[in-house]
Design goal:
The chain has 178 residues and is α+β, with helices and mostly antiparallel strands. The chain contains 3 helices and 9 strands. Strands 1, 2, 3, 4, 5, 6, 7, 8 and 9 form a 9-stranded antiparallel beta sheet that branches.
């Protein structure tokens, strides 16, 4: 998945200046609120996220329906992880702090179909880039299915603002890591 992330990052600059290339979603049904831009990439998707702070006990514990790799560009969050193949939330077994700046990014993968996690931003919004592969052939949590059709899109102005912010952070990242 990290190789897929690298391929997406190589193509990203050409996409960051055209809002028409992106779909948007305001994931606000459960903390943390996530402003999401996404588009097709290879046989999966690339996502740009702005994730807002929330309380530790509020954060949604969830699995991903696909293998994924993340690049955290800016901000910090606590993540709690666990694994379980059942439809109910598993025992969470590990907690860590993820912290990144454009000069010192943080990358990780979620490539276990039984993996669950929560993200708890602290001190301000977190900006990240995520790539996902094709969906795993397994169930999706019922609460995810229930809200999927009710999420709203972001305003065109907000889409442009997010693209501008990510473009700036990613340009800083590229300069610092050249």
């Amino acid at each position: 998945m990290l190789a897929r992330l690298e391929r997406a990052l190589a193509a990203l600059p050409q996409w960051l200046h055209d809002p028409d290339l992106w779909y948007s979603m305001d994931v606000n049904y459960h903390p943390p609120r996530v402003e999401r831009l996404y588009r097709k990439f290879e046989d999966g998707r690339i996502f740009l996220h702005c994730i807002y702070p929330c309380g530790r006990d509020e954060a949604l514990i969830h699995p991903h329906p696909w293998p994924s790799a993340m690049l955290v560009l800016s901000g910090r969050y606590r993540t709690i992880v666990g694994a379980g193949a059942q439809r109910k939330r598993p025992v969470m077994v590990m907690e860590s702090m993820v912290s990144a700046t454009p000069e010192a990014d943080y990358r990780y993968t979620m490539d276990n179909p039984a993996g669950w996690h929560s993200v708890i931003p602290e001190g301000g919004p977190v900006y990240s880039i995520m790539v996902a592969g094709p969906r795993w052939s397994r169930w999706i949590p019922e609460e995810t299915l229930a809200i999927a059709g009710r999420l709203t899109t972001l305003t065109p102005n907000r889409v442009s603002e997010l693209l501008e912010t990510v473009a700036g952070l990613y340009a800083q990242h590229q300069r610092a890591n050249a």
